[in-house]
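Chapter summary example.
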Amino acid sequence: MVNLLRRPDRREWIQRTLPPELGVTFTSDWDGPFDGRDLTRETLEIAGYQLFLWQIESDNPWWNRPLKLGEIGCTLAHLACWRDAAEHGDEAYVVVLEDDAVLQADFLAALLDRLNRLEQAEMEFDLLYLGRFPLEPDREVGLGFVEPGYSHCTFGYLLTRKALDALLALELEQAIVPVDEFLPALYVDHPRSDLRARFPKRLRALALEPPLVRQRPKDEAGSDTEDSEFVVS
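The structure predicted for these 233 residues follows.
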């Protein structure tokens, strides 16, 4: 669970909704530069992190500006989740949630049902979006799944153990981009050629349709990524 130490309100809120059977680990219990308010270019360099040359001339307002420190911290928090799961877990699947995720009431039972459908149909995958914001058309594959097009938002997804190894092999910490852009680059032709070159496709992705997870409205939960400063060159 991606959660900041200074946001116990979010942690308390989502803990009330989590199935008790889930063994959840919170990033707020770990040491790490996850909070954009605590990050500077200097602290990132001291920690050995490098930023991707993000800002380009583009009509896309998300690309035609520097990275935000909150976006960098969010990426590092997701990366820490992948590392922890790879080092300490032995489960077949790892679920990563952000603390503004809203889970369907029967989330765990419904998720296990969907995974059972995939196993019975022998449908292979590496990444399963539990919820997202689609930006391009999907491809219907049946059984309550689609092959996602280019999508944003990482408030709820599932990874296989094979996918963890693939993600970590790309050394995202040496070319940090928003995790919202990193994941889709690995399963579709990303609209930015520089991201396609740095992060080539290597994952088979599926998405639940309808989703099991949605995101709390920003006017209710706020946004610790968007409400942050731009990184200073």
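To summarize the output: Residues 8-221 form a domain with the Spore Coat Polysaccharide Biosynthesis Protein SpsA; Chain A fold (CATH 3.90.550).
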